[in-house]
């Protein structure tokens, strides 16, 4: 077998080539997409925003999850709320600006001026009297569940969500050395892409494509160094080793900043890659954190918001600007290389002659990812 091995949690496995990919229709069918929305995006914990984006009382950001618009806001007690953006009177959308601050401390419907506080309680309904048929308490805004994990705000639209800790079991304490809640957004790029959301997750999770598609990335982190160390619940991923001592993923391979907080030991030489199913790709580096937030807009379209998080003192230091730019340029280049092949795969998989493909053993994690999707949908495919 020689070098035909793959390492998972420090154990070498023989590479088994040839498990089958999803059929092409999983990237194109409107019906399957609608099923994914109902059974995955409306049921799973999904990433919504960074807590810093709604830092002050009354700050808000709108999040669109297919047909559902959610107002992420911070109430008077400082608690993050995820309010359905729908008036309890006759269903009018309350808020249309994508972000801002409810200066008045309340949310007023533009139609008949029903007014809610930031906790979602109805506090005024002009000219209406409470009685047998109407009481304000029954007209609070519906809310989604919220969990703030290390500054990443997750929401769950289901009325009976699984506990977040169960969903994130594999990562709960894993990155405490990074103190990610203290990191701040140094840069953000929005990419509008013509491909299915699953293609981005698949692309993120394998490096079989790296030597051809990412020559520079392959120089800083050789493909042979890839290891998986998490495959539990919603979290799949692992890490790659940096060749340069105290290096990072930048244009020249040198660190962009000092190590983040308490990062030490092996973590100084690793880049971690985790897909937190279904819409967050988290990439902690020794010196910064990169993440992608994926928003599907139909079977063949997504918005991919990419963020670079650094320590606040690094962002404030004018001398650090060029180094941050080097990290941004590296990942923007790498992202665009990925988007190109993902969009070509979206086109190719539409062909009637593409039925199912064959994964290499180095992509076995994608087989597992596909199985997560199939399990959530309740679909069974013969292997
Ligand atoms: S629909 Fe909102 S106040 Fe009438
Ligand atoms: Fe890639």
Q: What brief labels describe this structure?
A:
seven-stranded antiparallel β-sheet; 383 residues; binds fe (ii) ion; Naphthalene 1,2-dioxygenase Alpha Subunit, Chain A, domain 1; 8 helices; alpha+beta; nine-stranded mixed β-sheet; binds FE2/S2 (inorganic) cluster; Rieske Iron-sulfur Protein
In round numbers, the mean pLDDT is: 94
CATH architecture term of the largest domain = Alpha-Beta Complex
CATH superfamily of the largest domain: Naphthalene 1,2-dioxygenase Alpha Subunit, Chain A, domain 1
Distance between the termini: 25 Å
The CATH topology label of the largest domain is: Naphthalene 1,2-dioxygenase Alpha Subunit, Chain A, domain 1
The counted number of beta strands is: 19
Task: Give the helix/strand layout.
Layout: E1 5-8, E2 11-14, H1 30-41, E3 46-50, E4 59-65, E5 68-74, E6 80-84, E7 99-101, E8 106-108, E9 115-117, E10 122-124, E11 143-149, E12 152-156, H2 164-167, E13 184-193, H3 197-205, H4 210-213, H5 215-220, E14 227-232, E15 235-241, E16 270-276, E17 280-284, E18 289-296, E19 302-310, H6 312-316, H7 321-348, H8 364-377
Parallel strand pairs: 1-14
Antiparallel strand pairs: 1-2, 3-12, 4-5, 4-7, 5-6, 6-11, 8-9, 9-10, 11-12, 13-19, 14-15, 15-16, 16-17, 17-18, 18-19
The structure holds FE2/S2 (inorganic) cluster (FES) and fe (ii) ion (FE2).
FE2/S2 (inorganic) cluster binds next to loops.
Describe this protein's structure.
This protein is of the alpha+beta class and 383 residues long. The protein has 2 domains: 5-42 and 174-377, Naphthalene 1,2-dioxygenase Alpha Subunit, Chain A, domain 1 (Alpha-Beta Complex); 46-161, Rieske Iron-sulfur Protein (3-layer Sandwich). The chain contains 8 helices and 19 strands. Strands 2-1-14-15-16-17-18-19-13 form a 9-stranded mixed sheet. A 7-stranded antiparallel sheet has the order 3-12-11-6-5-4-7, with no helix packed on it. Strands 8-9-10 form a 3-stranded antiparallel sheet, with no helix packed on it. The longest helix has 28 residues, at 321-348. Fe (ii) ion (FE2) binds at residues 203, 209, 213-214, 338.
């Amino acid at each position: 077998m020689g070098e035909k091995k793959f390492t998972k949690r420090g154990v070498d496995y023989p590479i088994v080539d040839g498990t089958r990919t999803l059929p092409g229709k999983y990237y194109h069918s409107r019906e399957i997409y609608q099923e994914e929305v109902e059974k995955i995006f409306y049921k799973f914990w999904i990433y919504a925003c960074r807590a810093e984006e709604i830092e002050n009382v009354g700050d808000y950001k709108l999040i669109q999850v297919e047909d559902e618009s959610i107002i992420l806001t911070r109430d008077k007690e400082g608690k993050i709320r995820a309010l359905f953006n729908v008036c309890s009177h006759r269903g009018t959308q309350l808020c249309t600006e994508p972000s801002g601050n409810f200066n008045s401390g309340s949310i007023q419907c533009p139609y008949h001026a029903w007014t809610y506080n930031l906790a979602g309680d109805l506090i005024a309904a002009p000219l209406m009297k409470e009685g047998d048929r109407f009481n304000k308490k029954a007209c609070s805004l519906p809310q989604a569940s919220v969990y703030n994990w290390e500054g990443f705000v997750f929401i769950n639209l289901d009325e009976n969500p699984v506990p977040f800790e169960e969903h994130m079991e594999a990562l709960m304490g894993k990155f405490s050395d990074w103190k990610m809640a203290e990191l701040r957004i140094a840069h953000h790029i929005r990419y509008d892409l013509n491909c299915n959301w699953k293609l981005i997750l698949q692309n993120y999770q394998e490096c079989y494509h790296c030597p051809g598609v990412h020559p520079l990335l392959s120089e800083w982190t050789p493909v042979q160094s890839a290891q998986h160390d998490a495959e539990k619940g919603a979290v799949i991923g692992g890490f790659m080793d940096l060749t340069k001592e105290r290096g990072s993923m930048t244009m020249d391979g040198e660190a962009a900043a000092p190590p983040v907080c308490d990062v030490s030991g092996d973590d100084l030489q690793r880049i971690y890659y985790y897909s937190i199913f279904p819409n967050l790709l988290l990439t902690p580096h020794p010196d910064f954190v990169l993440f992608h937030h994926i928003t599907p807009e139909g079977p063949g379209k997504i918005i991919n918001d990419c963020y670079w998080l650094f320590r606040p003192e690094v962002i404030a230091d004018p001398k650090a600007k060029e180094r941050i730019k080097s990290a941004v340029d590296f990942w923007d280049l790498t992202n665009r290389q990925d988007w190109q092949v993902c969009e070509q795969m979206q086109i190719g998989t539409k062909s009637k002659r593409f039925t199912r493909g064959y994964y290499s053993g180095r992509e076995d994690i994608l087989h597992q990812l596909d199985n997560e999707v199939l399990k959530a949908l309740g679909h069974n495919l013969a292997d």
